[in-house]
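fyi for ur records
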Amino acid sequence: MKKTLLFAALLIGGLSQLSAQCTITPGCTYGATGYCTTPAENTALPNGTELVAYSTVIQLSLDMGIAPFVTFVDATISGISGLPSGLTYSANPTSGTFLPGTSACLIITGTPAASTAGSYTCRRWF
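which gave:
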C-alpha cells in the first residue's frame, strides 16, 4: 500500500510539472534589440476573466549579437512583474537561461483572483 501511494504521489507530481511547462517553438524575426518575442513586444496578451483558469505562452528568441560590437553570451529570464493576483509563470528551460541562436518560452497560468479586473502592464526581466 505504501509503495502504491508513493508511486501515485510521484506520478501526480510529475504530471503537474509537465502541464506547467511550455514547448519551445521559435518563430519570430529579430529586431534591432537582438531578441524577439511571440506575441510581439508591446502586444497585448489574451484577455482573462476573474475566477476562470488562464494560460498563455510567450516565446523568446535570442540573436547571436547586434552589429559588430555586441555579442550575446546568454540571456536569463529572472522574473515577470505586474501579473494580476492568482497568476504565476514558469520558464522552459527551467533555469530561465538560454544561449544566443536559441529560444525559450514562458507560460503564464493560474486563476485571476476576484477583484483583479483591469489592465496590467507586465514586464519581463532579462
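The chain has one helix and ten strands. thats all i got for now
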